[in-house]
């Protein structure tokens, strides 16, 4: 199993799955994109579901590592909670290095019921759950009572744009408003004054 062929297949498959989704992607199309034969593809992966699971795990792991690094970088220096959370939200939304991965995530959301459950579980465990756990750990250090729920709320309120347009990104004003709602909903101000 030559690693360069395997990597070419994974890169080609990511492009095809991100563009066409799981259901419409074909092994022939993926082999063509990867510039390998279908036989070579099947020498590395059992079937389309196996390939998809490997693609989403690899892609999600890379994106999650970058997001966790961003979380660690932003949360080690909290001085003004509201402003620092706004800056964090802007930085998370501005990540451009994983465009194909996030296109693939939009495809997953659109096709959720047509994708093998094992692939969805692998994606969630390798990507979103890992990122939420890292964020929850940082929020716990800041004294949030329910850091797991707070992590979900912060991500939703700062990374989701217009809900009518799936995949839209919020602007800076939306991020600032999301942080205000987040802090109000988690009663941070009352806890801060009670602690002094």
Concise synopsis of the structure shown:
The chain is built from eleven helices and no strands. The protein is mostly helical.
Describe the structure.
- By secondary structure, the chain is mainly α.
- The protein has a single domain, classed as Tetracycline Repressor, domain 2 (Orthogonal Bundle), CATH 1.10.357.
- The protein is built from 11 helices and no strands.
- Helix 9 packs antiparallel against helix 10.
- The longest helix is centred in the N-terminal third of the chain and has 28 residues.
- The protein is elongated, with a radius of gyration of 19 Å.
- The N and C termini lie far apart (62 Å).
N-C termini distance: 62 Å
Helicity range of the residues?
over 70%
Unreliable spans: 192-196
Instruction: Count every helix, treating DSSP H or I runs of 4 or more residues as helices.
Output: 11
Number of domains: 1
**CATH first level:** Mainly Alpha
The geometry reads as elongated
Give the total of beta strands.
Answer: 0
Largest sheet: none
Q: What is the element string, with H for helices and E for strands?
A: HHHHHHHHHHH
InterPro entries: DNA-bd_HTH_TetR-type_CS, Homeodomain-like_sf, HTH-type_TetR-like_transc_reg, HTH_TetR
Protein name: HTH tetR-type domain-containing protein
Domain HTH tetR-type: 3-63
Keywords: DNA-binding, Transcription, Transcription regulation
């Amino acid at each position: 199993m030559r690693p360069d062929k395997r990597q070419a297949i994974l890169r080609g498959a990511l492009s095809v799955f991100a563009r066409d989704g799981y259901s419409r992607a074909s092994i022939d199309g993926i082999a063509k994109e990867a510039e390998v034969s279908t036989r070579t593809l099947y020498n590395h992966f059992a079937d389309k579901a196996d390939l998809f699971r490997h693609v989403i795990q690899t892609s999600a792991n890379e994106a999650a590592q970058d997001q966790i690094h961003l979380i660690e970088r932003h949360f080690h220096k909290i001085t003004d909670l509201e402003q620092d959370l706004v800056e964090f939200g802007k930085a998370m939304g501005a990540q451009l290095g994983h465009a194909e991965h996030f296109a693939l995530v939009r495809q997953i959301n659109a096709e959720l019921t047509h994708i093998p459950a094992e692939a969805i579980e692998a994606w969630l465990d390798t990507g979103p759950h890992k990122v939420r756990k890292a964020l929850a750990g940082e929020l716990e250090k800041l004294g949030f009572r329910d850091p797991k729920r707070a992590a979900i709320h912060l991500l939703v309120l700062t990374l989701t744009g217009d809900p009518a347009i799936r995949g839209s990104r919020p602007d800076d004003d939306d991020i600032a408003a999301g942080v205000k709602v987040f802090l109000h909903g988690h009663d941070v101000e009352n806890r801060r004054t009670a602690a002094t």
